[in-house]
Amino acid sequence: MSTANHARKTAPSPFQLVARHPVLDFVNTLDWRFRSTGPEELISSYDDLLRFTEQSKLLSRSEARQIRATAQPRVCRRVLASARRFREMLAAVLYSVIDNRPPEEVSLKRLSSYFHDAQDGRILSWRERRLIWTLNRRHAPEFPLRRLSIEADALLASEQSSKIRACSNPECLWLFLDTSRNHSRRWCDMKLCGNRLKARRFRRKQ
Ligand SMILES: [Zn+2]
Which CATH number characterizes residue 29's domain? Predict the structure, then answer.
């Protein structure tokens, strides 16, 4: 119990997962993406990427622990850079779709190659009396990126993709899945969005 409390005190603050889909939460990790003074990066290290995928339940705690203990710094840097490029391609495509603009051919092509890579490392396995896709251990440091890629692959070609919206607050524009019954969700999270804006204005005044 005491170690848990200690961990909580020293741990970095958790990600705000409000999008109802891990891939959209991931796109939102480049915060204030469209503001004139530049965005804010919430995935500033490979460990942030691990924390994000673990918190989003795309990575188990033991997988994250094992990767942290064994991954080479050089590999981590490469995966981090690749994950950020992947996120920005996703953002380009998704915001185009939301605005009713055709996405750029080059972004679609690059996204496809990420999806292809992620599928390449998958292994069909039998666990707890059902079939699931697992990933080859050899690719362990890439698990966060590959799991996100597999989720994005499934989301983009699904019915759910028609429910992707951007927050109505023009300074926020976080993406989310509108799962409300009458398709009326307009905000990433009304309270959180207001608070984020207030905190930002406060920082600006100082
Ligand atoms: Zn918002």
Answer: 1.10.3300.10
DSSP H helices, 16-72, are 22-27, 46-55, 61-70
CA–centroid distance, 156 to ligand 1, in Å, is: 22
151 CA to centre of ligand 1 in angstroms: 23
Question: Is residue 189 a contact partner of residue 18, using CB atoms and an 8 Å limit?
Answer: yes
Note down the domain range covering 147: 18-205
What does pTM read for this prediction? 0.87
Name the DSSP letter for residue 108.
Answer: H
| Total tally of structural domains belonging to the chain | 1
23 inside domain: yes
44-73 per-position pLDDT tens digit? 999 999 999 999 999 999 999 999 999 999
Burial of 167 (0-12, 13-18, 19+ CB in 10 A): buried
